[in-house]
Design a protein that fits this description.
Rossmann fold; 464 residues; 32% helix; alpha/beta; OB fold (Dihydrolipoamide Acetyltransferase, E2P); five-stranded mixed barrel; single chain
């Protein structure tokens, strides 16, 4: 029997002395375990020991403080993951899986999933449904989660040792995105909750992760799973709309957050699911005092709460569809139906420590709040607001949703006359805080919303 305690004691003794080499440390253990056994024991316990494995096979202490991500966007779904997923298709359907009956069934199943989604119907995930779901969504979910994580990473909110809980992990797109976003010297305990047949695909995909990314998959429902300990990051990726009582589930899981942890929820950008995410957000904040929105729908005004539709989402550059999507599409009508490179999503970051991505207090003597827009119609005003959409206009003047956390009705900034004075409206990223000076407030009967008209007399600056 392996002397695990002896190996761990030796590691604790040496961790601050020099890099721990499994080929050496066995000499410090009474029963002289094989170096391969030592290496595996260190890998399994690296998180608790505060160690990370280097490329040369030695273990060194984790850096203290937050990670320093080198994220520059996502261009494609990595080839190694694509091969791993296609291996599942080959195992089930054979070498010609995109063609013949198998390909027809997979394309039909993707069509059924899309129809069920827009009809708001519950989907039961057998093995084939899980594979069809992964075929279509693995790449865009892989990309979306990384853009959402960047909100935390760039703000120094992700430590080098991370406990992560992924609720409703599906076929692994978010898991792989999290893995690739985090630097290689990060120690991770990743726990997934996935009750459906998608768990088998998830486990296969997780086999591609590095040694310092420890994984566990619980085949339980979100409602029945009981978190063990505290987590630095709890993820609900594209799953809240499938739960019977998402507000209750999210509220319960907030109790499993570490004091400086974050709950991240992601949903498709389509109106029904994106607005439902905001409804969940608002209900959770009412039910659990002390919970705050870190991003993107920050409340700028104390004691104010939004009550608009809440349809806010971000759009990021498309990614290159992987080979398995191209092959499925070509074997069908070759019209792009089964190539999904669009990265467009809504997200929510909740915390319980009061922290916010935007630490800013508007001056009520200088700027108006959106809750009072009715009294300002046809007036020019100054306003501070967060940019909450990409350009929503198919043609004509660019239009952007904006919010300050007090709005009762949708507000849109309409760029009627672009100039150097108002350039930040188009150039600022999603979630940026903008200061508007001399913008014209109008009521839009067609949209039943307020338009903040930005013209040559309007000055806009990026505040945060």
């Amino acid at each position: 029997m392996t002397d695990t305690a002896g190996i761990l004691d030796a590691a604790r003794y040496l961790r601050n002395v020099r890099p721990i080499d499994p080929d050496e440390i066995y000499e410090y253990v009474e029963d002289r375990p094989h170096p391969a056994v030592v290496r595996e024991t260190l890998r399994r316990n690296a998180f608790d020991l505060g160690l990370t494995e280097r490329d040369d096979g030695t273990f060194v202490p984790l850096e203290e403080g937050p990670i320093d991500p080198a994220f520059e966007g996502v261009e494609r779904f990595p080839a190694a993951y694509a091969r791993r997923f296609e291996d599942r298709l080959l195992e089930r359907y054979g070498a010609n899986w995109p063609e013949g009956e198998a390909g027809d069934r997979l394309r039909a199943r993707i069509d059924e999933l899309k129809a069920a989604y827009f009809a708001d119907e519950t989907v039961t995930y057998d093995e084939e449904t899980a594979l069809a779901y992964g075929l279509y969504h693995l790449p865009d979910y892989y990309a979306a989660i990384q853009y959402a994580l960047e909100e935390l990473g760039r703000d120094g909110r992700l430590p080098h040792a991370l406990r992560i809980l992924d609720v409703g992990a599906g076929t692994g797109g978010p898991a792989l995105g999290i893995h690739d976003y985090l630097p290689a010297d990060t120690a991770v305990e990743y726990d997934a909750v996935e009750p459906s047949a998608a768990a088998a695909v998830l486990e296969a995909m997780l086999a591609e992760t590095r040694p310092g990314f420890g994984t566990t998959v619980a085949r339980e429902t979100a409602e029945s799973f009981v978190p063990d300990g505290e987590y630095d990051l709890i993820v609900f990726a594209n799953v809240l709309s499938e739960l019977e009582d998402p507000v209750d589930v999210v509220t319960r899981y907030l109790d499993a957050l570490a004091p400086d942890g974050t709950l991240l929820a992601v949903s498709p950008a389509e109106e029904r699911t994106a607005t439902r995410l905001r409804s969940i957000e608002r209900a959770v904040l009412r039910r659990r005092p002390g919970t705050t929105v870190y991003a993107p729908t920050v409340r700028l005004w104390p004691d104010e709460r939004p009550d608009d539709r809440g349809w806010t989402f971000t759009r990021r550059p498309d990614i290159e569809p992987p080979g398995f999507q191209r092959r499925l599409d070509v074997a069908g009508d070759d019209d792009g139906t089964y190539r999904n490179g669009t990265v467009q999503f809504a997200y929510l970051l909740l915390r319980t420590d009061g922290a916010s991505a935007i630490e800013y207090d508007p001056d009520p003597d200088r700027v108006a709040k959106m809750a009072d827009s009715e009294r300002h119609v046809t007036d020019r005003i100054d306003l501070d607001a967060v940019k909450l959409s990409p350009n929503l206009a198919a043609d004509g003047n660019p239009v952007f949703k904006i919010g300050d956390g007090s709005e009762r009705i949708d507000h849109y900034a309409v760029l009627a006359d672009a100039s150097a004075l108002n350039e930040p409206l188009e150039r600022a990223p999603y979630g940026a805080l903008l200061g508007f000076e001399n913008a014209l407030v109008l009521w839009n009967d067609d949209e039943e919303a307020y338009n903040l008209v930005v013209d040559g007399e309007t000055f806009i600056e990026r505040l945060a």
